[in-house]
Structures are given as C-alpha cells and as structure tokens.
C-alpha cells in the first residue's frame, strides 16, 4: 500500500477520533502529494522515493518552524508544530544511527577516493542516494565534513 493511501486511511481515523493536530498534519501531507502529482511534467502516480522525500520535507518544515517559535519564546506555537512532525514521522522508515551513517560515509569516501572538503559534493551525492529517506541531509553533511577534514 502506498504512503498516500496510508495517509488517507489515517485521515479517516483522525476524523473519527476528532484528533485535530493529526488531521491538520495529514491533510497538509495529502495536499503536498497532490501538488507533486500536478506539477508540470509529473506523472499521475508518485514513487515511494518521491513520497518519502515529500514526507521528509514536511517534517523538516514543521521542525524548522518549531525552532523559530522556540527562539522567539512562543512555546504555545512550537508545541503543535512538534506534534505534527511526530505524526508525519510515522510514515518515514526507521532513521539510522550516526554510527551507521558514518560507516556508509567512510565507505563512500573510500570508493570515490575523496580526500579534501572540495570533494564533499561528490560524496554527498553518493551517500544521499544510498540513504534516501533513512537519514537527514543535514546530519549526513555534518558527518561527511567531519570525515573529510
């Protein structure tokens, strides 16, 4: 079953339970799926990889918003954003630990023969494809940079 169908089922469940936070997050995700399908040059169906990217983007948006609200001292606005992010994270695969990400990064560096920070883009390309949906790009970039210095 595709992520989109799972989201629709979760929307029905949230409606029955009158769970407004989950409902808001799930509707936003469904909307993002629909927008991706109607973009110019897009097909009528989304691959699992595309769906995961959309979910990751939505989670990142919620977390970034929450960070901004917390910095502004608006905990009342940050809480719903964090709860929505938690609802959306259930659709993502289990995140890898930093140790496992580091193993993948080291093997990619060895495979490419990267030795300088200027090779970071090449390493990021390989690692990002391999860890698509399993790790955050920011975490990957930090670990790549640390291993190339």
Describe the structure.
- This protein has 149 residues and is an all-alpha fold.
- It contains seven helices and no strands.
- α1 (3-17) runs antiparallel to α2 (20-38) and α5 crosses α6.
DSSP helix fraction = over 70%
- Strand tally is 0
What separation lies between the terminal Cα atoms? 43 Å
The stretches of 5 or more residues where confidence is low (pLDDT under 50) are: none
Beta content comes to under 5%
Look at the structure and give the mean pLDDT. 87
Going by helix content, strand content and strand pairing, the class is: mainly alpha
What's the helix count?
A: 7
Global morphology? globular
CA radius of gyration: 18 Å
**Order of helices and strands, N to C?**
HHHHHHH
Largest sheet: none
Secondary-structure blueprint:
Layout: H1 3-17, H2 20-38, H3 48-71, H4 75-89, H5 98-112, H6 120-130, H7 137-148
Helix pairs in contact: 1-2, 2-3, 2-4, 3-4, 5-6, 5-7, 6-7
What would the keywords be for this entry?
149 residues, 7 helices, mainly alpha
Can you summarize this structure?
This protein is an all-alpha fold. The chain contains seven helices and no strands.
